[in-house]
Amino acid sequence: MERMNFRTKPSIVLVLLLMIGSTVGVAWGANPHYNKGNQPICSPLSNTVTGTTFTGTCTAGLVSGVGNADLTFGVIASVTAGTFCHNPGNSNIVPGQNPATAQFANLQTVPASQIKNGTASLSAVSFTFTVSTPTPAAAGCPNDSWTVTLGTATWTASYVVYQPFPTLINSLSFSF
């Protein structure tokens, strides 16, 4: 059996070093998690809010085990609210045929230069999101002389972390 002489086979040594280096790099970014006691807490914690405005905050957080690319985080939300059609004399109120819907996103980015050894600070996020009352036609009312009011709004909100955007890091993302 022939002994491998690394002096005569520099390309093999280079390939081995590249393979080991790339494996270590993957391992460093392979376990994204919040540092103990540093997971963001978001409020409100209910997914049904009466009214047309959804306001809340998510506290700051500290993550480790992320790679060294830009990290994008924040709140995404969607809302569905029932609609009611009122005839011109307001004597007849019927459910609309179509709900009011809207979507919202408040995202921020931590530049790669601010991620140190796979650890990044996520700042607090505040948000206000309003669903608008649709036109009578959009709500599915009989005609444009009717008016529309909104019923209870059901909100779906998530705190999301992407790296790189738009790759979602599931272990750091959650619904509230």
* General shape: elongated
Task: Please tell me how large the radius of gyration is.
Answer: 26 Å
Q: How many separate helices?
A: 2
Low-confidence stretches: 1-28
Q: Sheet with the most strands?
A: 6 strands, antiparallel
- The structure class reads mainly beta
Write down how many β-strands occur, each being a DSSP E stretch of 2 or more residues. 12
SSE order: HEEEEEEEEEEHEE
Oligomer: single chain
- What is the averaged pLDDT score? 84
Give the N-terminus to C-terminus distance in angstroms.
Answer: 63 Å
Q: Could you estimate the helical fraction of the residues in percent?
A: 10-25%
Beta content: 35-45%
Number of domains: 1
Sum this structure up briefly.
Helix content is 13%, strand content 41%. The chain has 176 residues and is mostly beta strands.
Which characteristics define this entry?
12 strands, three-stranded antiparallel sheet, elongated, mainly beta
Architecture overview:
This protein is mainly beta and 176 residues long. It has helices spanning 10-28, 136-139, and strands at 33-34, 42-43, 48-49, 53-58, 61-64, 71-86, 93-95, 100-110, 120-122, 125-130, 147-162, 174-175. Strands 3, 6, 7, 8, 11 and 12 form a 6-stranded antiparallel β-sheet that branches. Strands 1-5-9 form a 3-stranded antiparallel β-sheet, with no helix packed on it. Strand 6 (71-86) and strand 7 (93-95) form a beta hairpin.
How are the SSEs ordered, and which strands pair?
Blueprint: H1 10-28, E1 33-34, E2 42-43, E3 48-49, E4 53-58, E5 61-64, E6 71-86, E7 93-95, E8 100-110, E9 120-122, E10 125-130, H2 136-139, E11 147-162, E12 174-175
